């Protein structure tokens, strides 16, 4: 039996009612057969980045779990808000811990822009991911518009899944993700 493709969802927000986390949960509910989507649970546990600790070879268990989770994933699905016209501190901190260890090098990244208000952070984060060697897959990284939102603010994933237009866009994103991963597998 073929192992399922593993996608790691990462929300750059710590809010319980985060639109980004709601998006990931909705994607998890729509996950097609042969794929798994696990949402990374521990960004809040990762300590502040310290090059001295990183270079000592003794990072915390939470950093090791973060790195291992990324390595095991066939693709990473990022969903991150904008805060004060920039990337959230928790997301940037988590990425700082993997700059030198390279878990994102050549890793396919799906990075949808969920809100029309997050362009500045999206551009900053896309540049950071590029510098880290991640492969931003354009067809898996749609940009929301006022007329075609990927999520609806302040509603649960259940309510989101009741919106046919949103579900169709999320299923289209899944179609792009599965097509990319299958094409990549055929090439290797």
UniProtKB/TrEMBL annotation:
Entry coiled-coil feature ranges: none
InterPro entries in the record: Flavoprotein-like_sf (IPR029039), FMN_Rdtase-like_dom (IPR005025), NAD(P)H-dep_reductase (IPR050712)
Alphabetized GO MF terms: FMN binding; oxidoreductase activity
CC cofactor: FMN
Protein name: FMN reductase
Domain NADPH-dependent FMN reductase-like, residue spans: 6-115
PANTHER family xrefs: CHROMATE REDUCTASE (PTHR30543), NAD(P)H-DEPENDENT FMN REDUCTASE LOT6 (PTHR30543:SF21)
Pfam families from the UniProt entry: FMN_red
Superkingdom in the source lineage: Bacteria
This protein's UniProt keywords: Flavoprotein, FMN
Organism this protein belongs to: Pantoea rwandensis
Listed GO CC annotations: cytosol
């Amino acid at each position: 039996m073929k192992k399922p493709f593993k996608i790691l969802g990462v929300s750059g927000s710590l809010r319980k009612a985060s639109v980004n986390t709601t998006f990931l949960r909705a994607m998890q509910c729509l996950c097609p057969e042969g794929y798994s989507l696990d949402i990374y649970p521990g960004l809040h546990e990762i300590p502040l980045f310290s090059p001295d600790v990183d270079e000592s070879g003794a990072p915390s268990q939470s950093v090791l779990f973060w790195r291992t989770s990324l390595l095991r994933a066939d693709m990473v699905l990022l969903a991150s808000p904008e805060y004060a016209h920039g990337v959230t501190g928790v997301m940037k901190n988590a990425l700082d811990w993997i700059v030198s260890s390279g878990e994102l090098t050549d890793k396919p990244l799906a990075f949808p822009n969920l809100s029309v208000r997050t362009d500045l952070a999206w551009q900053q984060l896309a540049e950071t991911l590029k510098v880290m060697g991640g492969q931003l897959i354009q067809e898996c990284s749609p940009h929301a518009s006022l007329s075609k939102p990927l999520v609806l603010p302040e509603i649960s994933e259940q309510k989101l899944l009741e919106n046919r237009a949103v579900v169709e866009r999320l299923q289209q994103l899944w179609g792009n993700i599965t097509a990319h991963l299958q094409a990549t597998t055929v090439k290797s």
